[in-house]
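assembly run, all chains below
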Amino acid sequence: MMSKNDGEMRFGNPPELHGSKVQIPYLTTEKNSFKRMDDEEKQQETQSPTMSPLASPPSSPPHYQRVPLSHGYSKLRSSTEQMHPAPYEGRQPLVQPEGSSSGVSGAKPLRHQASLIRSFSVERELQDNSSNYPDEPWRITEEQREYYINQFRSLQPDPSSFISGSVAKNFFTKSKLSIPELSYIWELSDADCDGALTLPEFCAAFHLIVARKNGYPLPEGLPPTLQPEYLQAAFPKPKWECALFDSYSESMPTNQQARDLNRMEKTSVKDMADFPAPTQDVTGDDKQALKSSLNEALPKDAPEDPAAPKDSNSLKARPRSRSYSSTSIEEAMKRGEDPPTPPPRPQKTHSRASSLDLNKVFQPSVPATKSGLLPPPPALPPRPCPSQSEQVSEAELPPQLNRAPSQAAESSPPKKDVSYSQPPSKPIRRKLRPENQSTESQEPSTAVGGPASGATVKPHPTVQKQSSKQKKAIQTAIRKNKEANAVLARLNSELQQQLKEVHQERIALENQLEQLRPVTVL
Amino acid sequence: MAVCIAVIAKENYPLYIRSTPMENELKFHYMVHTSLDVVDEKISAMGKALVDQRELYLGLLYPTEDYKVYGFVTNSKVKLVMVVDSSNTALRDNEIRSMFRKLHNSYTDVMCNPFYNPGDRIQSRAFDNMVTSMMIQVC
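ok done. output:
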């Protein structure tokens, strides 16, 4: 009954459409069966797909023509192929492990079994090394995941950000699937329907495309292993996913989703970078533990947590995940390159909006560092006004950042060269004016540093009395501020460029207006 | 318990129209088509006020002896028309409004799909499922 194609697909390169001619005919037969399913009550759903391979022979061969997407799952093929290839809302795959025995039985025992089976299959997922999972065509293996992530990065360097709809459309169109199919795949994978794909959504979409090209018919609903929550392990298990998926995407407010996506993306970045976890199950559990440790307010974690402890692997993995969570989230944050600013996706929001926040952050820090330290403008010839001084400091801040740790060593010798300054005030000046004085030290004209330092000595005679501990603390704080300043200064320069462009446009428009005006008057 | 649901584009051609197959579908198509006149009339009547003040839900467009037709227009002049069985008196205005809201949300989800070109027929399965749920919910 099962005619299997035993060719196994590797995912080093985008797979070509496999057996394309077969796809269309059984797509239609499946659509008919889907419609049948739709018309039936939900209670009968579990019954109808399992009976369809038996009841409608024409549709059964297409089920069995699968090319397995990952290798080594021959065990499961028997149960998988009995199941309807497109699990309706993910319930069927859960039925299928027991489906071989109960496939023909009535709807009611199936339903009861289904509820039991779900818990069993949840445990089974946790325990198995992803080899017996009924959704094996829909599971993403590690190598697939790596490939998808690399593709994502080629489209969007920031893994925690979105791919816009048009970019994704162009990319997925290259897969040469038909537009309606791509449209359907998008519909399945874009869980929050925002017209953009996050990393897990992108992985799900890519996986669906790959599956489709290998001959798997597209599922009716997003399989549980492809849901973004699963892929980031916020929402671990399929038991809820089927009912949850629809209600979840509808009921969750978008901002809450955005928040979840934020956290999920950070955990996903962390997971991909840090986790050597061999199986999706273990990562799922790790992420699940992470999510709970992150105090997700979602109640759905609760039913899954009892299932998780049954797995010793997950228990072992959990402390590991927790230890990772604290450090790697910070790393993920830093990877976002905006440590001091809340919004993790500068590309999504208008750059100006984010810059406004940054300006507010930037400005208080600037006067704090510069107010007591900046001498009157004439004393600083290279910085006649603050804006230009920002730009100058910005140019020098990047090299500063690299040398920030060694700033103490570097700035003091040049200052000693400047005989102008008094010896006791040098370390303090270095502390208090890291930007100005280190930039000055880096400037070819050290004489500039002289008058500056000399001017600063007077306002800070009392500073010399600070203890060394305070100096060190201030130095570290200063280094951090410098790093923040560097980032903000870069942003500032970019925004100023934008502002110039906008000014030019405005001028052009005003010119046009003036030219047109005399015409209208006439 | 809609008997027929239709999504009409701004240029007054149907993007999506589906009716319960019990009766002659052509009759429903005709009803929807005639309701477009009423929709345009309502839009133009409110059009003197600012567009923002115009409410999206148009309410009962016209009743026949068997059916009632309700209308909803979006800000992009896409019209949603729903034909409801008159025998179901339990359906109140709020319920119709909520149904239209769901329809509108589903429509915007379809719009968000980058593979959907505005002006194409709507072929989204999610949208189909939603419409189906709306049509069988009362039956």
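Helices of chain B lie at 25-46, 93-112, 125-136.

Chain B is about 40% helix and 25% strand.

not gonna interpret more than that til we talk
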